[in-house]
Design a protein that fits this description.
By secondary structure, the protein is an alpha+beta fold. Helix 2 packs antiparallel against helix 5. The chain starts with a strand and ends with a helix.
Amino acid sequence: MITIECKAEGLEELMRKATPDILAGPVTAFFRKALLYMETQAARNAPVDTGRLRASITSVLDSRPVPLWGKVTSNVFYAPYVEFGTKPHIIVPIHKKALMFKIGGETVFAKIVHHPGTKASRFMLRAWESAQGHIAGWLDDAAAAIEARWGK
């Protein structure tokens, strides 16, 4: 599994000074915008073979009335290998006598494969990086909404 997690630093202190009804809406809206954006970008960035990796990308928001964290994640076992790449490695069959795969449309059988490794895709990192240009604006929106609620 691979995850990008966002945490709101200093929010706990703000929560001691403000009531949840003032903070809940704006903070939740901030996290939802950020998570939806990063989830969408990660899915766009993910390489596609079968579409399973892309379809597995989802977001989770802290369930507290005023959320303190959110994360974008994929639960497919190979997501970290796609994100970070792999070093050269040897592949051998575990449950069968031979490996079977296709190269150029032709079926190949082998007892051992010396895999050259794979290049890191960084689909999650690129999603996080692309969100950076928007986060300050979304935080400004949340702060303005909190300020407006605080004055009422």
